[in-house]
Design a protein that fits this description.
The chain is an all-beta fold and 119 residues long. 0% of the residues lie in helices and 58% in strands. The chain contains no helices and eleven strands. The strands form two sheets. Strands 2, 4, 5, 6, 9, 10 and 11 form a seven-stranded mixed sheet that branches. The protein has a four-stranded antiparallel sheet with strand order 1-3-8-7, with no helix packed on it. A hairpin with a 6-residue loop joins strand 4 and strand 5. The protein is globular.
Length: 119
């Protein structure tokens, strides 16, 4: 079992920045990668970014490349999403998720944190 707790959401003006955090606890030694997803009202959940836990390799959706950066602190079992140059279309509930070794799907999800970008 892995527990994930997100923090750092809020209200920001367009062009501003926020940093989301996701703290993992439990069987963190079995985590293969951690991802960030978001879901806007009336839309499906979409991939934002992910990071390979051991090697630190990162992947970002085209819509956020150059603006968002995923990183992790292994000692703190925490993954971050630095979001710069925010746009109103980035408004959504952001979720972090953990994929365990030898599994293909993200099996653990946080409760979500709201990010609202005003124009």
């Amino acid at each position: 079992q892995v527990q994930l707790v997100e923090s750092g959401g809020g209200l920001v003006q367009a062009g501003g920045s926020l940093r989301l955090s996701c703290a993992a606890s439990g069987r963190t030694f079995s985590i293969a990668d951690m991802g960030w997803f978001r879901q806007a009202p009336g839309k499906e959940r979409e991939f934002v970014a992910r990071i390979i836990w051991s090697g630190g390799i990162t992947y970002h959706a085209d819509s956020v490349k150059g603006r968002f950066t995923v990183s992790r602190d292994i000692a703190k079992n925490t993954v971050y999403l630095q979001m710069n140059s925010l746009k109103p279309e980035d408004t959504a509930v952001y979720y972090c998720a953990a994929r365990m070794m030898h599994l293909n799907e993200y099996g653990y999800w946080g409760q979500g944190t709201q990010v609202t970008v005003s124009s």
